[in-house]
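User: I'm curious what two different proteins look like when written out as structure tokens. Can you demonstrate?

Assistant: Sure. I'll show them one after the other, since each token string lines up with its own sequence. Here's the first protein:
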Amino acid sequence: MNVVRYIWQNHTQVLGLTLEHLWLVGWSTVLAMLIGIPLGILIAHRPRLDKAVLGSANIIQTIPALALFGFFLPVPWLGERSDRLAILALTLYALLPIIRNTYTGIRGVDASVIEAGRGMGMTESQLLWQVELPLATSVILSGVRVAVVISVGLATIAAAIGAGGLGEFIFRGLAMIDNRVILAGAIPAAVLALLADFGVGWLERVLRPR
């Protein structure tokens, strides 16, 4: 109850940091989709590139978040604003599930359906937009769902470089050794992750081919 009372007493600040958190996650997810989906489509049609692209995305996942922040900090323009740095790092971490699921979704389209489309005279571009992507949408969204949940969690670490978000409460609570302050950041972040998971999961089910 002390945590609930603390959150209520500081609800304005909690709301402000939650909006900052959503801003970081939202931009990084959009950028990851703009990069990851085309890459997934590319390697699905050019299988010789899949090891290089997926391997690079896998390597990024192994780098600790704070180390990645530190690596980009000296970069001109990028290191001047912590929010840019955080968005770039979150985008890189979100790439793997989006690329992998896009690749899996496109490759999973039944070959007979593709051949039927070709037999109807459809071009490769028409096959992609009218056959492959609609049939792979639910699988792609499954990857986006994982990416969003990962980003919500990792965005809390962005507070370490001054990028804001709910991690501000967590780091402040650690410095004060106060569980109430830590939970004031951790609980809203967990709620955001659950809501994102539920929301994208619902969209995934709605768009699943019948």
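Here's a second, unrelated protein for contrast:
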Amino acid sequence: MNIHEKYIKRCIQLAKNGLGKTYPNPLVGSVIVLDDVIIGEGWHQKAGEPHAEVYAINSVKDKSQLKNATIYVSLEPCSHFGNTPPCSNLIVANGIKNVVIGTIDSNSIVSGRGVEYLKSNCCNLIVGVLEDQCLALNKRFFTFHTKKRPFIFLKWAETADGFIDKKRDKNSENLPNWISNSFSQQLVHKMRASEQAILVGTTTALNDNPTLNVRSWIGNNPARVVIDKTLKIPENYNLLNGKELTIVLTERLSKNSTNLLFEVIDFKKNVPVQICKVLYKYEVQSVIIEGGAKTLQSFIDENLWDEAFVFVGNTFFENGLKSPKIKKAPIEIQKISTDTLKIYKS
């Protein structure tokens, strides 16, 4: 690892502190180095607040050191006025001549413009250090801006004998049939706190009456998305309580209310593609598809997903609703106490 990789890696570490808090902005970290010593660092903490470069520059006590220092940043410094002034201008204004960048910003309002501004002001630039890692850091942001859809996570729990739920009848309770252990459930809530939205189908909403919020972790609740073609879900169910922004995908027109939005789609056409278009409209950069089996399989069959997390519990149902099927091998397998977590990439 060379010296530039060393400090871009630190930028990536810092940037991850903002996961789940910076939407719609990307995750960015920055460090300022003089004679192989970090004299300042920072990360973007929340949309509307200062960017990583601002925190890094402001943390340097002796600003006279900046003219001889190198600023490292995981993503190209912005060059436009938004909620905050351009970071590329700030770098130049502080006399920083050496700039090392992880990757170019894919957002059309930034892409390449920050680099050009720095070059035109006689900065010495190195671009593309640990680029793959910097791209992976902002996989949600880049997918949203390049593919015009959210980054899609699939997630479900299945029994050791391959079932996602027990058989249900009219006498069954509207509660989940838990499969995974408490450690896996905590990890799921950590995932929820990191992503912008979470989606379930009608059957899951009716059978489990889920809240789809963050309980076993600290963080923001995701927006909730539910497929309800004919508006079957009772008004007193958790998903319709108005406590969190909820988008209902339906074929029937209905009046919006506080935190409850209805979007009409055509169920005779490609539903996963239409869902992505609706989420893109609401600037949702990431979504977890949590169920049920039919909804999950529809995204798999359309090859419209990016990563999948399958928790295999140490339980047996013997019969019930079969779990979805991904026709490829997992890229990683982890043990979570009595559970096995299989991770897939599209």
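A detail about the second structure: The mean pLDDT is 94.
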